[in-house]
Amino acid sequence: MKTFLKILVGVLLAGGLFTFAFYRTPQERAFREHLKKAQANEESAQLALAQDYLLGQGTKPDTAQAVAWYEKAAASGSAQAAWQLYELYSSGNQVPADPARALDYLQLAVQRNWPQAQYEWGNFYAQGEQVPEHKGQALFWYMMAAKNGSAPAQAKVEGLATQEPDLFEQVSQFAAQLASAEQNNTQAMLEVAQSYRQGNPILQDAPLAAQWYEKAWETSNHTLPAAAMALWGLYSTGEGVEQDENAAADYLAAAAELKDPAAQYQLGEQAYSEDPARMEDAFAWFSNAAAQGHSQAQYMTGFMLLQGQGTAKSVPLAIRFFEQSANQENPSAQYVLGQLYLKGIGVKKSPRKGRAWLNQAAQNGSEPAKALLGI
């Protein structure tokens, strides 16, 4: 009997020691499961593991490990991880505060449509905190956050709709254009790009404008002259992109091939001003643009006909183009017509008509017309 009791006691003691040595609490078991799955690159497990380390759930608190796992999750595309890192680096409670790093992670979470981040980003623009103060930009991000389920953002949107109805209407229209652009509507892409280029109603962003113009150009399979013309302007000046004369020339030529009158006029200007041997090219480009109603091209076509540059001289035909341009309130054409009527060149001399055209030219800002009239 005593032997049996001794054996029983030994078994119980051994069992107790085994339990003590190998028993795991539910939190510890969860931690081990999170670690296993996190190491296998499961995003949700990486987030859970980071939280375990941060709060000491199932393991000792380890902020460095928490940050490391949040960073791995963020690198894998987790918006929540980016948001958590923003909170850690902005608060400075568990890691040293790092405003620059916090801002980077906030922007990353914003780009990944995390509603709390979008709401916070709206606050930044509303208050001018680390970014320029801008009501339109703030409202836009409140709208995005509200769309993604943020109740505080929805309250902000409703308040601003009452307080700033005009701004609300403009930003709502921009948000609708952006949504349409993201569905590959090329016209909407142009409108979004123009809004970013002009800085209305959202903050000016030339690089983003360039991206949308390029996307419109590519999505249209290179058939959208407005996109090509915008990109010509951007690459010519280096606005939002690295200045590139060759790229600019390519976009301009592409727009002209698509019969864009502004592009045709510009090529005419280049030929006319840069190379006297290319007068025929200049006249061809000007006349093509003039046929599409381009006012300045009509003026230049008339001027070259009047001078016999790049084409046979024809005063009557020149007058026809001057009249087309003048009727579109082109002051240069109005001034020339005034002179022709005053002197009776190609038309019946008429001081009355001459002065009438000169007056119109002066009203439209022609300095030569003002000087001739003594204004």
Going by helix content, strand content and strand pairing, the class is: mainly alpha
CATH superfamily of the largest domain: Tetratricopeptide repeat domain
Shape: elongated
Rg for CA atoms: 35 Å
Count every helix, treating DSSP H or I runs of 4 or more residues as helices: 21
Major pleated sheet:
none
Low-pLDDT runs: 17-23
How would you describe the overall organization of this protein?
By secondary structure, the protein is mainly alpha-helical. The chain has four domains: 29-112, Tetratricopeptide repeat domain (Serine Threonine Protein Phosphatase 5, Tetratricopeptide repeat); 164-258, Tetratricopeptide repeat domain (Serine Threonine Protein Phosphatase 5, Tetratricopeptide repeat, Alpha Horseshoe), CATH 1.25.40.10; 264-327; 329-375. The protein has 21 helices and no strands. It has helices spanning 2-22, 26-39, 43-55, 63-75, 79-91, 99-111, 115-127, 135-147, 151-163, 165-181, 186-198, 206-219, 225-237, 245-257, 261-274, 279-291, 295-307, 315-326, 331-343, 351-363, 367-373. α8 crosses α9 (151-163) and α14 (245-257) crosses α15. The termini are far apart. The relative contact order is 0.03.
